[in-house]
Predict the structure.
Amino acid sequence: MMKSFILLSALTTAVVAQSTISSTCSTFLTALNSDSSLTACIQPIIAAASQFGPGSTTTPTTSSVTSALNSLCSSSVTNGCPDSLIRGKLADFYTACTPELTGDSPNADVLLSYDVLYVMTPLQQAVCSKNDNGAYCVTQIPSDIVPASSKEASSPNQLPLDVIDSNLYTTSSSAPKVKRANTTTTVSPALVPNSTTFRTSNLIYLFSTPSESSTDLCVSCTRASLTPYINFQEAVPYAPGITNSPLMGGQSALYSAITQKCGANFMSGAVQAAGGLGAGVLGGGKSGAMAVKVGSVGQVGAVLAAVAVGFAGLL
């Protein structure tokens, strides 16, 4: 099992060791670290994506990419981690750690732990989203949006795959060795998602960024991959404010760009403002199939690998 798959456990254990958080927050995080219901819903996701994470030597192929996505998006996996479970944990998280999340001086580590838990449901749904032709959106990311290497980047600010792959997470040698309940995997040192990489690349939105042209941005996959986050925010408003999210903070700028380049109705009434609430309807608006610009199976597989690694890192 990949070390990053029990990241939430590593994060919460490291945070609990701090003396700067409240006793109620510490108690909650300790309980979250050994929550068997959370472990049970994460395990199938781990199994589905395990071949694309840190330490993997798998060379992506059409077969392996398709197999991983079909497994990750199967009903047995998607139904195994109900929204109600995550919503309940997030509500308890906010109640126990309000000062750390929304106080005058929020605790960055507690906030990142909250983000890790918050994105679990919408991230899986985004990875499993499809375009109008029934193709997984993650396999349709244009190569000019996420080039394979720094040499192919069109601007200094563009994060190519080689940079993303090398900077998805950091290791915290100061974090204690931990073992998640009901598993036999030990983490030392802890793997912590590199929030700068996630936020700059908009990885959780399948790399959609405000700088994209309307040709690349105004497609059904943009809507399909963003809508799960809008829907989840309707059910569970993001307590610290979406612009303060270490991982999702790029949503406001992305939505503004979508509105400007694709028209106010592109999201089909799903949102009224960036990070706002809405119905999340998928129909309507521009919905043409994405123009596939990826050059090879290897390129598509590399993009999927980056997304899979990101998904693993967030768990």
Remarks:
- The CA atoms of residues 40 and 119 lie 17 Å apart.
- The chain has one domain: 3-314.
